[in-house]
Amino acid sequence: MENMVLILISLALSLFLAYFLSPLVLNESHFGPAWRVLRRNMTAVMLHPSRIKEFSHYRRRAGRVLIGELRRQADRGEPVVVLDSFRYAIFSLLCWMCFGENLEEKTVREIQRVQHDITLHFNKVNYIFPRLWEMIGETRRRREDLFVPMIKARRERIEEVNRRGEESFQFSYLDSLLNLELPDEEGRSRKLTEEEIICLCSEILSGGTDTTVAVLQSIMANLVKHHDIQAWLYDEISAVVGDRETWKRRPWASCPFQGRDHGRPTASPPAHFLVSHSPTEDATVGGYLIPRRTTVNVMVTEMNWNSKVWSDPMEFRPERFLPAEKEIKMLTFGAGRRACPGLGLAMLHLEYFVANMVREFEWTAANREVDMSEQMEFTYVMKTPLKATILPRVR
Ligand code: HEM
């Protein structure tokens, strides 16, 4: 009887979540088999390494914004609290990549507020917030009010570019979505609706911001804590700066960023679980049968904390990721067909921002202890945001 009640409650909760959140996110079940076309568009068009290179001027601009903001805070002679500056820099960069225009700060901040509220609704759903439906409706309207004019303007801009035969036109994710043809059930093709485009742009903004920001803050906290490693990294950066090829030949310079398959130099990744997975056929893993359609939650943090897999798993020891030592023992970005498509971009952004911040400033702790304990928000974040004293380096 008790089991029956639990099953009914779970069912009701699932329907509730599906119904209430569907206006904000669209998943594989919304698109059916056409979802593969979208995934290909994201990995092979938007996030392909050659495309990522094209966004380098946005990266430089975001880097300047971040360093400028940190410098302003440091000039006041007070310790800097870095979280908001990190979040704004990463978010603006993703916004420019998504919408293709150098959006003004005011617009970026408005989009940031809407995206933040969407994330908040996800968290509040856990407590079945009474005004949830009303709030979701309101957030959805605000998001539409912001995104629809940008979509329209972009559509017109593309038409104008085609008419004039302009060549130098900066690609954006939005362009790829406006171009896309999805197969429908009758074998014809269709364009994406405005609502679908909004949700897909929103997905990349929320998927790429809090995750990267959580890792960025944790890397900087570790460099503040381990001054010797920061000094070593500074020497490496100074030796290779401006020379991407040399950087590539000196893999130890990238160690704090944990190579391709990792993502966080501390013991836990920003998501403690992957998104739930489910095998389409019976499978056997490590001698255990996983029946078809079982919900599988992969506890990635447990892997990182496992002392049978890692020696001193809680220690910050970037050298463990030197190529000679490196093995794939983590699933920070997931694996398989639903693995994170933003892996390459996230690693690049982390390298870029950390390298610039270490090159510009010497970082020391503002408090005696850097508290590395975590708490759950959209991702796992530092419970006490990093506060540091930064001194411009004399070059
Ligand atoms: C350090 C940064 C990041 C970490 C640790 C991270 C981690 C993850 C993880 C664990 C998943 C679920 C994978 C699975 O269940 O197998 C995921 C999915 C996803 N990530 Fe990331 N991510 C990061 C950055 C990014 C960036 C920069 C973007 C986009 C620009 C992005 C976009 C996405 C998207 C769209 C999905 C959903 C994929 C799907 O449902 O098929 N992520 N990420």
From TrEMBL:
- GO CC entries: membrane
* Keyword Oxidoreductase carried by entry: yes
TM annotation in the entry: none
Report the superkingdom from the record.
Eukaryota
Q: Give the membrane topology, semicolon-separated if more than one.
A: Single-pass membrane protein
Indicate whether Cell membrane appears among the record's keywords.
Answer: no
Main location (coarse class): membrane
The entry lists its GO molecular-function terms as: heme binding; iron ion binding; oxidoreductase activity, acting on paired donors, with incorporation or reduction of molecular oxygen, NAD(P)H as one donor, and incorporation of one atom of oxygen
Its keywords, alphabetically, are: Heme, Iron, Membrane, Metal-binding, Monooxygenase, Oxidoreductase, Transmembrane, Transmembrane helix
- Cofactor(s) listed in the protein's UniProt record: heme
Q: Which InterPro entries match?
A: Cyt_P450, Cyt_P450_CS, Cyt_P450_E_grp-I, Cyt_P450_sf, Plant_metabolite_P450s
Q: Where in the cell is it found?
A: Membrane
- Residues the entry annotates as binding heme: C340
Q: Which family does it belong to?
A: Belongs to the cytochrome P450 family.
Task: Report the protein name in the record.
Answer: Uncharacterized protein
Which organism's genome codes for this protein?
A: Spirodela intermedia (Intermediate duckweed)
